[in-house]
Amino acid sequence: MNTNLKNIVLRVVYAMIAIALVAFLTPGISARGGLKTYLFAGLAVGIIHSVLTDMLDIRDSATKRGCSGCLISALVLYLTGMIVSGFRVTIFGALIGSVVIGIVEMILPKSLLK
């Protein structure tokens, strides 16, 4: 498998796992529709996060950027909830979910994505 394609697939799977954990652990975030919803939410999170970090010239994750990183993650979650059918996010859920994403990013091995 091409290295770039492998990296993209791993990033989408990584995002799907993070979203599934966030949806399970966070009040105010729900996902209905099974694997399809997680797939589209993972793709949307990746695209929205990439666009926002490019626009704001930010390169670090929520765990490395502190409060601003958490707010960006909350915005990404909230926008994803507006775009993806079956994925619902309240403002409070987005704020709590961004903290959970920071914890998940510390646990899941990012070294696979290099």
Short description:
The protein is mainly alpha-helical. It is built from five helices and two strands.
* Main sheet strand line-up: 1-2
Instruction: Determine the fraction of residues in helical runs and give it as a percent range.
Output: over 70%
Report how far apart the termini are.
Answer: 15 Å
SSE string, helices as H and strands as E: HEHHHEH
Low-confidence stretches: none
Radius of gyration: 13 Å
Task: Tell how many strands the DSSP assignment holds.
Answer: 2
Principal-axis shape equals globular
Largest beta-sheet characterization: 2 strands, antiparallel
Class of secondary structure makeup:
mainly alpha
- Give the averaged pLDDT, no decimals: 82
Individual helix count: 5
* % residues in beta strands: 5-15%
Describe the overall structure.
The protein is mostly helical and 114 residues long. Helix content is 73%, strand content 5%. The protein has a two-stranded antiparallel sheet. The chain is globular, with a radius of gyration of 13 Å. The two termini are 15 Å apart. 32% of the residues are buried. The model has no long low-confidence stretch (mean pLDDT 82).
Characteristics:
5% strand; 114 residues; mainly alpha; 5 helices; 2 strands; 73% helix
Strands, helices and their partners?
Elements: H1 3-25, E1 29-31, H2 35-56, H3 62-65, H4 67-83, E2 87-89, H5 91-107
Antiparallel strand pairs: 1-2
